[in-house]
């Protein structure tokens, strides 16, 4: 295994923004998930608000979508990309006492959108933390991972439960 | 427990940036942790780079520090705060095959810096994902949580293992 | 009336960020209003969504709050200010077929927050335009104005209907 | 008219960034207008500065152009777009005691640039407010609207006076 | 001379945002200079525009002021600071065929504003490059340096010609 | 030589973002250089850190890459561009007691990337200043210039020593 496996470094071991100028423009999709665990009462507050007022999940969704557009500002070696689609599903799960987040991001571009999908997921979950922290400081964000990607030279990849 | 527990909403259930104008300016600290799990080979690559060239952790640390300064841009109802200190420790842990991140943020202000510390931690871990994803798409971010906070009216809070 | 009335220019007529270093830190408030006029059907769609799903006004409110924090990024000679409170009320008005926006912004600082309140109002209204433009391109934003300000050396100011 | 007319929401009524990945890339143009009304003396100050020093309109023009590039940062569900042209005309109108703003924005892209043109117009007018507010707090922004758009599937649209 | 002289690194040699929480808030000033050298014809074009139309220096001044507010976004370990004053003087110097830039920045804060003053100077000069590059690609930015600073624990410092 | 040589102004002498909508998309490259001069002891500290800990140059490189992505945010009339490659080489030069910076930026686009390459160079050098200023306030940034560009209608251009 050589150092050159980490493509964000050149032969001298110095970071660079990898040259993608010769890559084809293809349709690319990335799907990510993550969750935030909380106390039962906190989840109940969120679920009450979701249907009437105090819409925590609606605000988290907007924060996630907006953050996906800032990925290249935040991740040092990310290429800027014009996204064509962002969708965030936030699902309260009473049994496991958490809100689950599933994010899909698409572009037509020369690099993939995994980072944009992870960013959207993460900021949506952090926004839930922010809005509920006054009643529950112990919330934990868990299992932020890529589930699937397609497009580009490396093609299709899918997370397999119990592997990777 | 009433809806009014979620202070980010007014009586009409509408989101607002909470009025902190009458709060005292006190020294505030927040300490957070999180980790990114990966394949043994990926961790080996990171650890090799850390001591010679291809410094993944050094870049992740910078990304996390820079992100902490953008917290109010990303989290909709966060108050902008002039941070006085940000420290990020990234520790490879061979036994659990992960990089652990411990972040401390301080300010003198009218609100706490929990979100800034969580943001720094999260973006540092996402940056590790970005730099290693070409060799390991299955990395997972786990256990992003607040460990401790001090300052302000609500005073000192500490995470207790096994509780929340 | 001399040129020096426009304090954003020095004696040579060159723009500068005015020196506020010797001003006292006082509590400052600004209240603004504005409205977006639309077709009756458009307003009906918004009002339906506000109570069930498709929450246009909730998203506009978040966009306005977030924009208030970016005022100094967008208005060239504005001083950066740490806001302590932002509140946006969006009120559908069936008779006049429009959504009215009333915004309150506060800070403890050396300059006022009129621009932050106007910015929040304007971006909230533009976000309504964005979300409804597919069904109504002819919407118009009207009457964006300061209603009241307090704090600072110039003290209290209030808009009087029919005067300026 | 059904809820689904508001394309920024999916079938569950949740906001998303609409998928434009299959839309053709076409040349798109949007033309907007707006105005800021003020006291005669304020307009006189601006007009004096425009020709000699204290160039309020020149600064407002720059602020508007720069803001057009940040539209996707500010409007939650806007797609990021690489603009190819922005032109802002600021015209003092003595009879109506106001400055009129006419903005043209172009791109080659998958979505239109109406929001970018409205944003540029609005921030240019707000910048005029900022620079003149010390002498005239009662200025009002009026009539911010789309005048014309072309390109894309929905084709050409033009504002007709007295309609919409 | 020990490594610890570079305060941006902790004892482990890892970058951090230095803790300034215990520093006094004092009035701080920084004055910087820099210049851009160009062909005589380019300088003539700028000087013509400065008095009539095509105001290169006015736009460069605005760009520099706006950039000073983004210093903490761009310089990784800079503390965010609320600036109280920014002044940029751009002086065409026919004999040396260049535009000279002199920038003053002030704040009341816990750290100095040297970086903000250097940033404003640099972006003002780069903006001149941008606007004139179509007629003169060989322009060179020279002599960007701190001239003077005051405030804070380290007190007053002044550049002495021929020394450092 | 007419005013129209400065393409960033229209016939009325007003600034605009030049219309590039009809330009061909070609591969474009820009190469820039610049340097920061310092005391021998400062350079020694940097060189020590570069190989062990306290990696000033690694952090400066990241800052430069990230800044290149913000060029259109900072330079008023720059077109936003999706960069495909950024590479920054920072070379300590003991004889001349300075760090030299050589930057290459590429895109496939309708306008060139000279400004992005200059921006990356400048922010990398300013970051070195920031990290070393506690031990050497007299550092000077010199010789920031374009060395070479290719692509686009104006084609290849190369700096010739002793000429412009």
Task: Give a structural overview.
Chains A, B, C, D, E, F: Keywords: Lyase, Molybdenum cofactor biosynthesis. Chains A, B, C, D, E, F: Substrate binds at residues 77-79, 115-116. The structure is a homohexamer of 164-residue chains. Helices cover 29% and strands 29% of the residues of chain A. With 164 residues, chain A is α+β, with helices and mostly antiparallel strands. Chain A has one domain: Molybdopterin cofactor biosynthesis C (MoaC) domain (Alpha-Beta Plaits), CATH 3.30.70.640. Chain A has a 5-stranded antiparallel beta sheet with strand order 2-3-1-4-5, covered by helices on one side. In chain A, helix 2 (56-68) packs antiparallel against helix 4. At the C-D interface, helix 1, helix 2, helix 4 and strand 4 of C face helix 1, helix 2, helix 4 and strand 4 of D.
Query: How big is the Rg of chain A?
Result: 18 Å
What portion of residues of chain A is helical? 25-40%
Gross morphology of chain A is elongated
- Secondary-structure element string of chain A: EHHHEEHEE
How much of the polypeptide of chain A forms β-strand, as a percent range?
25-35%
The parts of chain A where pLDDT drops under 50 for at least 5 residues are: none
CATH topology of chain A: Alpha-Beta Plaits
N- and C-termini, Cα separation of chain A: 18 Å
Q: What composes the largest sheet of chain A?
A: 5 strands, antiparallel
Please report the first level of CATH classification, the CATH class of chain A.
Alpha Beta
| CATH architectural group of chain A | 2-Layer Sandwich
Q: How many DSSP helices of chain A? A: 4
Work out the largest interface and the residue count of each chain: A-B, 66 and 66 residues
- The name of the CATH superfamily of chain A reads Molybdopterin cofactor biosynthesis C (MoaC) domain
What number is the mean pLDDT of chain A? 92
In total, how many domains does the architecture of chain A comprise?
A: 1
